[in-house]
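Fold it.
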Amino acid sequence: MPEATVVIPLFNKGPYIGRALSSVLNQGLQDIEVLVVDDGSSDDGPEQAAAFRDPRVRLIRQSHGGVSTARNNGIRTACSPFVAFLDADDEWRPGHLETLLRLHTSFPGAGICATSYVFIMPDGTRRAPTFSGFPCPLWEGLLPDYFRAAAMGKPPVFTSAAGAPKKVLLEAGLFAEGVHLGEDLDLWGRIALESPVAFSHSGPSCYRKDAGNRLCVRIPRERELPFVATARARLCKGKVPDHLVPSLRAYCCKLVYLSCRHLLRAGRVDDAALLLHKSGFEGEENGHIRRIRTAVAGKGG
């Protein structure tokens, strides 16, 4: 049994998949399996992956079903009890996978293990995310409150810098299929409602904003992100621990704000007002929600 399974969803990322695979195979760990799940690519990405003659790399082909379907296929196929994720246009810094497994060993009750990450901008510059709600660099441990950290700063869990026990992923219901934006935030949020999140500033991943054909750019934030509905249902049923309710509501307000802001920038004021109303967080005394209410009242101005 390999120490870890790495799942890489692939869809028309031929120029980048070689870089991603090399960053995985150059990690210090040797006893791993790497599942490249091709989601019906029309470019040479699958051939690029197949050209790696490393027995640890396995190419799985499926008809186009979306990134969640590809990731879920990889999770179900995984032979290891621990699954790490990497998108085909991102890459890992040395020591990343070792850090994830160290967190998994040190904090066996953690439902998610995650490292820091760095943005690679289109001009080649590197930018560190602004985290909040947990200790500064050189620290690793269990996040005091995942939702507070996500509400106050950049998301502490980025999918290309995260891993989780296969058992936890299956019990959480895997990535929501048929959802094209925010499906990863939804899964991490569902797990964080049930289990602690382990984090380390060591072994960061690289989030490459210089890659072409990125899904998050092609799909606008004009619908409610799926975790808002997940959290709303849990809150209505009283299935959120009392100590997490304030931070969970603040995080949902931020997600609602991100969607409404996109609509307002496109001049779709009525759509923003409707999305805010349907979210169930319209009356929150939260800075993000107040900004949206003010913009809607001023017709987007």
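The chain has a mean pLDDT of 94.
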